[in-house]
Design a protein that fits this description.
This protein is of the alpha/beta class. α2 packs parallel to α4. The longest helix has 15 residues, at about 100-110. It contains five helices and five strands. It has one domain: Rossmann fold, CATH 3.40.50. Helix content is about 35%, strand content about 20%.
Length: about 140
């Protein structure tokens, strides 16, 4: 399952995903990962969440990030939840490619039974293909 929390910058999406991640981590049998573009949320997260600061890795594009996600999953079959805060802050994805990128995340989610929750700063109308992921 892929869940999207989208909205304008400054509307509390990061606080919301941190809160949800902290609540969910105690309910999963496997591992949960929180990916961000900096360390701001690190100390607000439950200690059982694996925190990854994407800035520490040479990942720039959406395709490289998909490879990174696949590497995480292939290395740990126990991953059940992946939280990504601010996908467009983490990697460069052109707005017209967002729908295709989310479809690939959905395919990974289905193939490996990993739930994704992703926040997205989006100032205008969300593309129709992304609305199905909205929580």
């Amino acid at each position: 399952m892929v869940t999207l929390i989208a909205g304008k910058k400054g509307t509390g999406k990061s606080k919301q995903i941190v809160k949800i991640a902290n609540e969910m981590v105690t309910k999963v049998d496997g591992s949960a990962i929180f990916i961000d573009d900096d360390n701001r949320a690190m100390y607000d997260l439950h200690h059982d969440l694996r925190f990854i600061n994407l800035e520490e890795f040479p990942i720039d594009t959406g395709e490289e990030f998909l490879g990174f996600i696949c590497g995480l999953i292939s290395n740990n079959y126990d991953i059940q939840k992946i939280f990504i805060d601010g996908i467009l802050n983490c990697v460069k994805i052109e707005l017209d490619q967002l729908s295709g990128w989310f479809k690939k995340i959905e395919d990974i989610s289905t193939a490996f039974s990993v739930d994704f929750m992703i926040t997205l700063n989006y100032e205008s109308e969300l593309p129709e293909a992304l609305k199905k992921y909205m929580s």
